[in-house]
Design goal:
The structure is a single chain. This protein is α+β, with helices and mostly antiparallel strands. It has helices at residues 2-11, 21-32, 34-45, 54-68, 131-151, 174-177, 179-187, 238-253, 305-319, 344-360, 409-426; strands at 74-79, 87-93, 99-105, 120-122, 125-127, 158-164, 190-193, 198-200, 203-206, 214-222, 260-269, 272-274, 281-283, 293-301, 326-332, 366-367, 387-388, 395-396, 404-406. Strands 1-2-6-3-7-17 form a 6-stranded mixed β-sheet, sandwiched between helices. Strands 4-5-19-18 form a 4-stranded antiparallel β-sheet, covered by helices on one side. Strands 11-14-10-15 form a 4-stranded antiparallel β-sheet, covered by helices on one side. The longest helix is centred in the first third of the chain and has 21 residues, at 131-151. Its EC number is 3.4.17.11. GO terms for molecular function: carboxypeptidase activity; metal ion binding.
Length: 429
Amino acid sequence: MRRCLLALSLMALALPALAQDAERTMLSTVVAEHDRHVGLLERMVNVNSGTLNLAGVRAVGEMVRAELEPLGFDVKWVDMAETGRAGHLIATHPGNGKNVLLIGHLDTVFEPESPFQTFVRDGSRATGPGIGDDKGGVVVIVAAMRAMQAAGTLDDANVTIVLTGDEERIGTPLSIARRDLIAAGRAADYALEFENLASEDGVDFGTIARRSSANWTLQTSGRTGHSSGVFNDTLGYGAIYEMARILDGFRRDLPEPNLTYNVGVIAGGTPAAIDAEGFAVTASGKTNIVASTAIARGDLRTLTPEQDARVRQRMQGIVDQHLPRTDAELSFGEGGYPPMAPSDGNLALLARLNAVNRDLGLPEMSPYDPARRGAADSGFVAADVATLGGLGVAGGGAHAEGEWIDLDSLIRQSQRAAVLITRLSAGEP
């Protein structure tokens, strides 16, 4: 399988559409350095960089620094101690062309206590924590930059790379945690995000939209007393019935395309409580006592800011229709990911990528269904700059033990990226 793909990659060098010697050099460089980049990926994966492992995140950042500085990048580490996180790596390569922002992240969901810690290769398939999300994407960036340098197209390229250290669990306050990424997006002409490639049954898709991700907390209260009095004018319905009414109202009244509103944790009783992190709930009670308190937490995912605002208003309207002798409060957590809303600019960027695909002899990529993608850092820049996501490696099982990638996808993704970035920075139509 791997030999076959390498042969196809070499055949691409003969395509007449690739008239420029520089582009041919980029393709051949990616193929020639494939084993080097697999080795880099293995070393990165074997360093634990769970979001809360601050030293591990910094260590992976230093590995990337060692790759980019020899290519002429000015690399700096932006410390994020005030947000409770390690920090971000920002690398700049000033040039004469359009500024192209490349986005990825250094952290993973696998903290040091996870049993899943090691890179394992089996032919063209490899598993490991964060191998696709997002260390494979970071390696694609490195491979593309090396190919551009070999071809001489990096010399005048205007490239900014932002690799966050807390994509999986953003630090607070958000205004500081994403300050530098947002600023880079406002200065860029194009933004490319290197999270996992959407690929199904051997067909690759382009990501021109992602939904948001925000957390909500719902707390209900009621009068407590002997259960023989439930539903009467004195006690009313209690906190749990009020909670059930609201959540069922969400289920019945909110559905619309590209919207989800999951309930992740719930507790009710006399009393019920939730921890400061919002993950663990406790409750106690008896069958003959009307519940005084109920708590639920969930997430909300929308495709556009307008949809987000509208749905939040509708949720609040459902909450406000209280059962007798109950009350409820709905709140949304600080931060979260804004949507990467679909736009003409994003679609035009996919068209530019498809021009590259045609020249490389690869199939064109259709837009991927945003309802099937998670949120990402691209959402923080998409309101300011045309953005294309999912330019990392192909694989599966992200965020779970056994996360895997197709190592051969590292070749085609690095080739696509090198040619696309070169053309974008040069201002080619």
